[in-house]
Amino acid sequence: MGGEWQVLGKMVAPADPNVWEKCGGFWLSFLSIQNLIMDGSGEIDGQGSSWWNAVQFNKCNNLQLSGLTLLNPPNAHIQIFGTNSAYLANLHLNAPEDSPNTDGIKIGASTYVQIHDSVIATGDDCIALLNGTNYINITNIACGPGHGISVGSLGGNGDYSVVEGVRVYNCSFNGTTNGARIKTYQGGRGYVRKIHFDKITLIAAQNPIIIDQNYNAHGNSNINQETSLEVSDVTYSGFEGTSADEQAITIACSASPGCLNITMYGNKITSSAPGKDVFASCNNAKGTSIDTVPIVPCLSSNSNVQL
């Protein structure tokens, strides 16, 4: 089963979610539709906080989504779960900077997803890659405002979580609260590996590069848990631009197993404030840093090092 669904005008969610009770908290929900094509030049307006989620695709293999504008989601603009093969392109996603939990594109338990040539301005992650998300290609995304492009959060409540095979290329972060971000909870299990952020433009972005293995969205105390997911084979290359924070690079890894084979090369991050310097903080990580500003203290500058 498949077909093409075109949006050419403007769709506006009902103000009262009680008149739309059968979709389980979603306004538009697509379940187990194979080869679905959704495109057009129209707009989808979620009307803000009246709804929990705007548009969900669940188990929609070979999905194509392009050309649309999505406005004012109550939660995520677009959610994709349990899907093998999806192509998203030429999307415009817009929500106020201060709107909570309004992820642009949220993906979980999905493989072989491509996201290209889109503009995302929102109050949370521009793109969030959750547990079970593998082999993702993200190219030519303008993110800002928002919380950057994030792997995670992962490992909450001690869960086993995995993300593998992500490439983020030729993207920009403009005034975002994070840039290239990996976030895991203490006490979680599993791994994040084979992640590559390449050719990234920074415009007064906070936390341009951040691995946070002490992530805590709800303020609960996990300070006695020293383990987290294993983060390995992560590469940052071709970052250029300005940081709104003095601490431009944060590699905050758990004591066990820590972060392994972290590679940085060809990065130049300066301060957005004239005359200010930037620095990097690094704990419990092993890897190499070559031709990178600022210097990352816990990574070796020897390009021949064997890890």
TrEMBL record:
Organism: Ziziphus jujuba var. spinosa
UniProt protein name: Uncharacterized protein
The UniProt record lists the keyword Hydrolase: yes
GO MF annotations, alphabetized: polygalacturonase activity
Any single GO BP term: carbohydrate metabolic process
InterPro entries, per database record: Glyco_hydro_28, Pectin_lyas_fold, Pectin_lyase_fold/virulence
Family named by the database record: Belongs to the glycosyl hydrolase 28 family.
Organism superkingdom: Eukaryota
